[in-house]
Amino acid sequence: MVSGDDALVNNQRQKELQDARILQADEGIRAAEADIAAGDAGIKAANSAITNSRSGIDAAKADAERTGLERKRQEALFAAESATRQTLEQAVANQQRFRAQLASREADLTSATAQLLSRRADLARARAQLGSAELEAQKRQRAVLDSQELLLHAD
Q1: Could you state, in order of their start, the residue ranges of all structural domains in the chain?
Q2: Full-model pTM
Q3: What number does CATH give the domain 4-154?
Q4: Which of 44-60 are b and which e, b meaning 16 or more Cβ less than 10 Å from the residue's Cβ?
């Protein structure tokens, strides 16, 4: 049989352990809050990257269209023997370069969109961690131990 003093000592140890659990749960909340702030910042950065990528796409499309028209013009002039092969080759190279830039900008947009989705998922995870009832459960357990201590003292 456990003596009253032993029971009180045991209760005090359990309370100390419970205090450590409460502190750990509270630290988990602080970490989740920091993760939420980082998630918000990541979303803003990804949205900015998407905006920049879209602007880059618009510019690259305009350049690709312009150089495509120039290529057609140079091909017609070359066919009429009014332009040199070198001028035509330069127009072809320019068109290919701007098409490649457009493809690169489109890849940037795809990447930025994927980053945004990833950051949204990170934010959702952090919010779920913040919403955890772990801290409250640990505090309730501490209250149970406090009640047990009062009963032990009464005995």
Answers
A1: 4-154
A2: 0.67
A3: 1.10.287.620
A4: eebeebbeebeebbeeb
